[in-house]
Amino acid sequence: MSGTDADAAEALTWPSLLPVVTGMPQLCRAGLSENWLFKACGHRHWLALSAAYGLSSPDFRGTDGQRLYPAFTSIDLVAQGAGLGAVGENVRIDFALRLERIGRTRFRSTIAVSADGHPLAQLTMDSAFVHRAIAGANNSATRSGVALPCRLRLPAAHTTKPFRIHAWEMMLGFARTDRLVLASVTLDPVPHEDFNGADFLYFSAFQAMLDRAEWTWFRTTEGLPTSCRRSIFYLGNAELGDRIQLHLCGLREHGGASRDHWVEIQRESDGKLIGVAFSMRKMNADLR
Fold first, then answer.
1. Residue 62 domain flag
2. Would you say residue 1 has pLDDT above 50?
3. Is the distance from CB of 249 to CB of 264 less than 8 angstroms?
4. Largest Cα–Cα separation, the chain
5. What is the pLDDT of residues 57-75, one digit of tens each?
6. Is residue 193 part of a domain?
7. pTM value > 0.85
8. CA-CA-CA-CA dihedral for 15, 16, 17, 18, to nearest 10
9. How far is CA 201 from each of CA 145, 165, 206, 208, rounded to the nearest angstrom?
10. Which structural domain range is residue 130 located in?
11. Residue 5 domain-assigned?
């Protein structure tokens, strides 16, 4: 396919890797692991980006030859059907991905996830290419463009604006002006679990920290929560050794059936906000 924008496609439909049959790596005490699902979808997003640039593997380079990485800027998970809590062993998980370009360095994949042929979840994943302006410094990551021509055309207009921490008004029923600090917890990411092979704090570690914080704050062993909806906005990263503070800024509880919360994620070292998450969580009995 030609690299000219006139010949480029509006979107790329990327076939799934081989279906996954669930076992212990994909499952948790509350059903399908949301953390595993993030990683599985993120990997497919990377591979689809490779296809969009005609690469056989995701080795992206800038105009000066610098290594570029697709960094997620937001992820929105919407559960479908019986939800993640209903998934047990030996369930076939399929992924259908559609990738589009939403800016010069920004891309969006919409991933339909099914379980034994039934809708399970839809993930919308936005990413931008970044490189380290200072070698070895995660906090110096800055956006950059891939040197190769892309097979996806630029949108005629910017139809989606990036999340701005001081610009949003309402998100999943929470109003920015109602912000409180109801509870806080400090977590210490470890290199073996929370950082990826590119040495960044991995995007799925943000989701894991949200679950750890929720367990610390509420700690209920009956009716374990799973996400009906989860929106995470990524605003920065962290260095190895940085501790991370999570602040519960909003909470709605609906009896014992569900809870919604708004959490801010902050570096302890300099107080910088590196993430904001809005979650709608359903309490599940063991459905498996």
1. yes
2. no
3. yes
4. 57
5. 999 999 999 999 999 999 9
6. yes
7. yes
8. -110
9. 21, 20, 8, 12
10. 11-155+162-284
11. no
